[in-house]
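REQUEST FORM: STRUCTURE PREDICTION
Request ID: SP-0412
Submitted by: Lab K.M.
Chain count: 1
Length (residues): 292
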Amino acid sequence: MITRRDLLLSVPASVAGARLLHAQQPTFRVGAQNVPVYVTVTDANKRLVPGLEQGDFEIYDEKTKAPITIFDNQIQPVTVAVMLDSSGSMTMNLELLKQAAEQFVIRLLPEDRGRIGYFNDKIAFLSDFSNDRDMLIASIKDMQFGNPTRLFDSVLFSLDELKNVEGRKVILEFTDGADTASRSGLGEVLRRAREEEVMIYGIGLQSVMMGMRTKPDSALRKMAEETGGGYFELKDTDDLGPTFTRVAQELHSQYLLGFEPQTDGKVHKIDVRVTRPGLVARGRRSYQAPKS
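STATUS: Completed
RESULT:
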């Protein structure tokens, strides 16, 4: 029998069996009367923790404990926009980035849908949302270079593309530098991600330009932390493949919790906790309450 842990730790050669299991699972839908919170749980060694139950979690809405009205520990299908920085600083590393993105696509499950895009001074999508892994991998090869870097705009373009998508929505954003040319800012990104309930993952690569080491835009971490996604900052391109693989593993091992929102029309802070000692829970930090 294939277990949840088997599925999470499977290598590409064994994905077919895991895919069959996933295809038999129903899609879970969250009603408008609940706030969905997708939660990643790790232990002290950063390993993903499966097998938890509803009683292992607590949710606090503005420091007041909220009853958990929805709980599901099965794999939830995801629609993900993968946006890759192809600005001039990535010239020497673009092929490695393409290979890493392929590792992520390979690990998408049959009910998942992905879309590949890139950004520099331009923002372009190389595919439609699809579960055709071969097509998505082929599209990665069409990335083009450019300058400068429109990080925030690329997130907003992705939000536009996800706006009419039903179900769980994720943006996976990669960059090796700071935003230098966006027409929008971090505040607008966070507002829309909160209101449209989109999780953002960030992968940042430190790079060397003219003998100096540069860091990815600090806003990338902020976007990930506020929306419940993970943030990974890399010093070595050798870590690109394993990190893109880790993101896929996390997306297929998260818990779905839900609670009834307040109805005051305000932005509310959320704190998700796991009660078992030694474990850490990560989820979105806020939601936009409806107004009664």
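NOTES: The chain has two domains: 4-75+253-288, 78-251.
Reviewed by: T.R.
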